[in-house]
Amino acid sequence: MGAENGNTANAPARDGTWRVRIRSTTGDVLGAGILLGSETVLTCAHVIPEDGRPLPATEVRVDLVGVPDAEPVSARVAPGCWVPQRADSCGDVALLRLSRPQPAEHAAPLFRLPPVSRRPVRMCGFPDGNDDGMWFLGSLAGAAGPRAEWVQVNPETPGDVVRYGFSGAGVEDEQTHHVIGMVVSRYDDSDSVPSAERRRFSYMIPVETIVRHLPQVARWVGGEAGVDPRLVSPLTDGVQDIGFAQRLALWLRRESLAGREGIADVETVVIEDDDSDRNGALSRAVTLADRELSGGGAEEAVSTAPRDTVPPIGSLDLAIDVTGRTDTDVAKRVADRMDLKSLGDTSPLSRIRANAVPLTIVAVSVDRAHDPEALVRFMKLLADQGSRLMLVFRDGQAPGLHLAERLFRPDRARIDAWLDELAGQVTRAEGREREAAERRALLSPALNPPYTRNASALRINLLRLRDDPGLHTHHIIAKLAVFEHSVATVLRHAEAALCAADEQLKRIPELRNLLAPYAVRLGAMGAAELPELIPLQRAAFDLLRSVPYDVPAAQEAVDRFVRAVNEIRP
């Protein structure tokens, strides 16, 4: 890979000479781009003006702004390389074909890199008034946007948020100078939010997602793929073991337990060689979770998948078959996947120790590794650094499995403290549900959408967790994480129901305050002379006194009375 551009694909970009400014034929700046090879530019599809054709034929001008004395060159969208933004905001990538080749040494090597939180990056675009380019600094914050295709980039300073002229700009990793993504959009809170509280940040499309939409780009991409070829699924066999597929998707969907110091988020699974249903479910899960592999046939696999069997895109950093591999081999695979560097000793273990990067890893056939126990101990190092691990064994009696169960056994006190914390959250959920029920009882049943109180079931499940035979083994971690998610869901629904009821109830005093001056006004006019208005007034007052309140009916009655009073001619 990378031969066409004159560099090895794993070499860093050369002083940003790959940076491209895209202009209209009249000279207006449209956006940015990334030079690939000698005659191809990567950019966002929305940068190129559409002309109503399936493949826009609009001609644009391309400037290699990082190359002194480079002449502008015309370009058009390359055949088969136009992926406009879909209704769900996915896509929005395109390749331009230059009218004449450029020096290959200026091209950018793209690089696969999982978007680990807080990784420093920089990007250069061409905002209004600065056609020569401006660098902004930021750090990755994690997956966001449509179907988690985008990655949020937080600005180093409030001013470092991309704007018009940055779309299509390369996002460069500060440490390695590899191009790891492309700017696509920005977020800015509405003007109603106080300036000091307003949130502003940028979005990028990572390289692996770009390759999913434009496989032609893979020829210019370096870095380790996320899934070993032996684990990739063709996604043609459907789901045979739905329960296990749901378990895998749930584990991949789960948020990291990094905030729970001393509790390693590790699951051990036994899948025998001849268990084709579970082996198929595992391959399918890691394929769908990978940013680069979850395109093509994955769309059909997702649309026809049984409920809750599809993991989020980008929820996996690495899936590796460790059969016959040493712990050093696996350490190298991890370090290379994350493009980790270290000073002095550059051994894989040193690179990992020097860069505590939390990953989500699936390791398959751990008991078939060259030295399973040594590999398990290496996995313990990754877990201690915050990585989430699923360790797949082929033999339920393997010594490596017993070692993993001992090494990853959580501290009793930490589990008990977690349970106490969960108990407090359940109590809070119960309280919120009671409050919501009290508020809803004041409203007409017609205004209350169906709502099930679930906190009592949470209390029962909490008691079951405290009595679980595996309470102080690593197997309890998954159960506690699932339960914590359930508590959060119940609490969120209770608070939403409470908020909705309060929004309805606050209309009652507002309507009373609206009605009162019009009643006084009617009295001053001589209500006895206007008998037709008395029933309207009484209906409004009755609806504002009657519990449960029918707020829409009260609103309508007050409006009817107010209109009638306003229509009285003096």
Q: What integer value in Å does the Rg equal?
A: 30 Å
Q: What fraction of residues sit in β-strands?
A: 15-25%
Task: Based on Cα principal axes, name the global outline.
Answer: flat
Instruction: State the helicity in percent bands.
Output: 25-40%
- Low-confidence sequence ranges: 1-14
Number of strands: 18
Q: Main sheet: which strands, in order across?
A: 1-2-3-6-5-4
Structural class: alpha+beta
| Overall pLDDT score | 88
Compute the number of helices.
14
Distance between the termini: 88 Å
Q: How would a textbook summarize the main sheet? A: 6 strands, antiparallel, barrel
SSE arrangement:
Elements: E1 19-23, E2 29-36, E3 40-43, E4 60-64, E5 73-83, E6 93-98, E7 110-111, E8 120-125, E9 134-144, E10 150-155, E11 170-173, E12 179-188, E13 200-206, H1 207-213, E14 221-222, H2 242-253, E15 266-270, H3 276-289, H4 298-303, E16 318-321, H5 327-337, H6 348-353, E17 360-364, H7 372-384, E18 388-393, H8 399-407, H9 412-441, H10 455-466, H11 476-505, H12 507-525, H13 534-545, H14 551-566
Parallel strand pairs: 7-14, 15-18, 16-17, 17-18
Antiparallel strand pairs: 1-2, 1-4, 2-3, 3-6, 4-5, 5-6, 8-9, 8-11, 9-10, 10-13, 11-12, 12-13
Helix pairs in contact: 2-3, 5-7, 7-8, 9-10, 9-11, 10-11, 12-13, 12-14, 13-14
